[in-house]
Specification:
The complex is a heterodimer.
Chain A: H1 2-17, H2 38-52, H3 58-63, H4 67-77
Helix pairs in contact in A: 1-2, 1-4
Chain B: H1 12-17, H2 19-24, E1 37-45, H3 50-62, E2 65-70, H4 77-80, E3 92-96, E4 103-104, E5 111-112, H5 115-132, E6 135-139, H6 154-174, E7 178-181, H7 183-189, H8 198-204, H9 210-227, E8 234-237, H10 248-255, H11 263-280, E9 284-290, H12 293-298, E10 314-318, H13 322-333, E11 340-343, H14 347-356, H15 369-379, H16 390-411, H17 415-422, E12 424-429, H18 436-445, E13 449-450, H19 458-466, E14 470-479, E15 482-495, E16 498-506, H20 515-529, E17 534-539, H21 547-554, E18 558-559, E19 571-575, H22 579-584, E20 590-593
Parallel strand pairs in B: 1-2, 1-3, 3-6, 6-7, 8-9, 8-11, 9-10, 12-20, 16-17
Antiparallel strand pairs in B: 4-5, 12-14, 13-16, 14-15, 15-16, 17-19, 18-19
The chains are: A mainly alpha, B alpha/beta.
């Protein structure tokens, strides 16, 4: 399950940043991807919500610190 | 051929996912031939506007405008309006109002700001923009139905918001540069919510949803394109199941659905009224229908028909492919295919036209008439809220007078005799102040009879008016069949006894009447009397303005030879010797009034 979530997330990131070289793993953080600033964060959250058909709360968004936590949160909510 | 993803209707989710891809490749998107127009837009208000900004860039590029976008400080638009220091070099202010602007939040006593204060700030902004000739696009205030943040004051926020919306509509009637983008109207047309969820407001500061940002961005870009002379000019429509329900050839006048009696009949009535409103605003209407003309005509005798056969400038009811009929329509109207919009209920017909004429705008939205109507309202391809000039209103008559002219041309074998019979009058002088708006419109909309392709902002235009060494001349043209109005503008720069034509434009509707010869002769003779002894001009070749090269030679100019021999480079022309003889040798068949 988590593997397929990670794969889907990777697609979203590649698509969103228009960069096919992006390879996410559970320890990837915003610091690892050049264009991942606070504005990109907004676009990513909305993209992920649309793709997985779920909604994050404000608190959940603020607590996310790396991709692993994001995968866990998506897994939990779907 | 599939529709372009940026063409209506939009798949918001798909577009949003591809934001960066479009943004990076936006130079390749341009629909128009030729170089994009430059524009600068200053945003005021709107809180976090990143998604909106990206999409304004993308749609503007698609419509042929390369954009510089200055973003806003955080806060209520009306309170930030006073901070806009410099309106120099700005083409448009985009003022993003939000109903949350109307609340003083975070205090024990939540209070709603009075509409008077907001109105006075907005009025100041409109006045300042008017003084600088800067266009303003302003969203209305979305009426909150329920929910925070209001401290139980939803009713009073809704009241203030609707007072302000009425105020904005009134201002738009008075101020030609103000264009109200109605979020309330777009919301009524959209199946997706256009305002942000509460989570996205609190978390990100978004006031618009992704769909709302895309819809609003398209409207802003469309208006910007319109201001830059890239607007749409004519609407081509199918007949059966587009202007009425049913097939006139099978169902007869009694059998077609139109009028207030049935639900579908009501939709077609509304479509017809909308078309009539567009026509009254100067949009040209044309028919492209697979029908026999005499049968198609009968449908307009239906007692509930709002439109008349004569409301259309061109009628193509035959069995030829629609793409070739649409080409004929563009030729007949003498406008580019990229200034046409086409609506047809039949997806196969739309696909046929799109394949052969990809530059025509075609909303691709199913077969339901209500969707066609929604598309016209949502896309607003003709910027229907912008002010009209006298020439906009005359334009339709002018095309109808054309059929009379064509008849005379057929009856008169000799073209010279025809020109004499048609009795063209060319009235040349500097423009009156009430004609400035039309001068600017002609300068920014004309593509064919355009010496240089240079566009002007209101501010640049004002500078020319104020400059003692620059002159503007206009030509008002009419003939025995009708009045074309102000259809020629020439910009002159004087230096000692020399005059350089900075730019020269004439409406495509007055071609081939030798009015251009008459206009130049009148201007040159006037300048000669003021001591001018020589003239020059620089012709900049563009996609559609080649006629000019020959005209300048016709008028007695000679090209200053260079070794380049490249016909795509600017070419310099001069008229220095025997000026009086040359001017008197110019042949034209017009009466000149100075």
């Amino acid at each position: 399950m988590t593997a397929s979530i990670l794969e889907n997330l990777n697609d979203i990131f590649q698509n969103y940043f228009d960069d096919e070289d992006i390879q996410l793993n559970s320890t990837t953080t915003a610091a690892d991807i050049d264009d991942w600033d606070s504005l990109a964060q907004v676009g990513l959250v909305i993209s992920i919500e649309k793709k997985f058909g779920l909604k994050f709360t404000s608190a959940e968004i603020e607590q996310l610190s790396n991709i692993g936590e994001m995968v866990d949160l998506i897994n939990e909510k779907s | 051929m599939d529709k372009h993803p940026l063409d209506y209707p939009w798949d918001f989710e798909d577009l949003f996912m591809q934001t960066r891809r479009f943004l990076k490749r936006r130079e390749e998107l341009c629909q128009h031939s030729g170089t994009p127009q430059q524009a600068r837009v200053q945003i005021i208000g709107g809180y976090t506007t990143d998604i909106l900004e990206n999409w304004i860039h993308i749609f503007a590029a698609y419509y042929g405008v390369e954009l510089t976008l200055d973003t806003s400080d955080w806060g209520a638009a009306f309170s930030l309006a006073g901070n806009v220091n410099s309106l120099d070099q700005v083409d448009m202010i985009l003022c993003l109002n939000d109903h949350r602007d109307l609340i003083i939040a975070g205090k024990r006593n939540h209070s709603v700001i009075g509409s008077d204060l907001v109105m006075s700030q907005i009025s100041d902004l409109i006045t300042r923009c008017g003084d600088h000739g800067v266009a303003i696009s302003m969203t209305d205030f979305c009426i909150p139905q329920a929910g925070p943040p209001s401290g139980g004051q939803q009713a009073s926020i809704a009241q203030v918001a609707s007072d302000l919306n009425m105020f904005l509509q009134q201002q738009a009637q008075k101020h030609p540069l103000l264009n109200v983008l109605s979020l309330n109207q777009f919301s009524a047309l959209s199946e997706e919510p256009l305002t942000a969820t509460l989570r996205n407001w609190y978390q990100f500061g978004h006031t618009l949803s992704v769909a709302g940002s895309i819809v609003m961005a398209q409207a802003v870009a469309r208006h910007l394109a319109f201001l830059k002379g890239l607007g749409k000019k004519a609407l081509v429509v199918d007949l059966d199941n587009t202007l009425w329900g049913g097939v006139i050839g099978d169902d007869g006048v009694e059998g077609i659905e139109l009028g207030q009696e049935t639900p579908r009949g009501r939709i077609f009535s509304d479509i017809q009224s909308h078309l009539l409103r567009l026509k009254e605003r100067g949009v040209l209407l044309a028919i492209a229908s697979k029908n026999n003309e005499d049968i198609a005509r009968e449908a307009f005798d239906h007692p509930s028909s709002i439109l008349k056969w004569s409301d259309f400038s061109v009628h193509k009811a035959n069995w030829e492919p629609k793409s070739s009929n649409i080409k004929d329509i563009a030729n007949h109207l003498n406008i580019g295919l990229d200034s046409l919009v086409f609506i047809d209920d039949n997806p196969a017909e739309r696909a046929e036209v799109r394949t052969h004429l990809p530059m025509v705008t075609i909303p691709d939205c199913g077969e339901n008439p209500e969707d066609q109507l929604a598309a016209l309202l949502m896309l607003d391809p003709f910027s229907q809220n912008t002010p009209l000039t006298k020439e906009d209103l005359l334009r339709n008559n002018s095309f109808q007078d054309n059929s009379k002219r064509e008849q005379l041309m057929k009856d008169t074998a000799d073209p010279t005799l025809f020109l004499k019979k048609i009795g063209t009058t060319v009235h040349v002088s500097p423009p009156e102040s009430h004609e400035y708006a039309r001068c600017l419109q002609l300068t920014n909309k004309t593509n064919q009879f355009n010496l240089t392709g240079h566009r002007l902002t209101q501010q640049e235009f004002n500078q020319i008016i104020a400059d003692p060494l620059q002159d503007i001349f206009v030509a008002r043209i009419s003939d025995t069949f009708g009045d074309y109005g102000l259809t020629g503008v020439m910009y002159i720069q004087r230096k000692g006894s020399h005059a350089h034509i900075n730019n020269w434009l004439m409406s495509c509707r007055v071609f081939s009447k030798t009015a251009e010869h008459a206009m130049f002769k009148a201007v040159a003779t006037f300048l000669q009397d003021k001591g001018i002894t020589s003239f020059s001009a620089e012709f900049i070749p563009l996609a559609k303005n080649r006629k000019f090269m020959y005209l300048l030679s016709d008028l007695g100019f000679s090209q200053i030879e260079d070794d380049k021999n490249n016909t795509d480079e600017p070419m310099a022309f001069e008229l220095e010797h025997h000026v009086s003889q040359t001017l008197s040798a110019i042949t034209h068949y017009c009466e000149i009034i100075v």
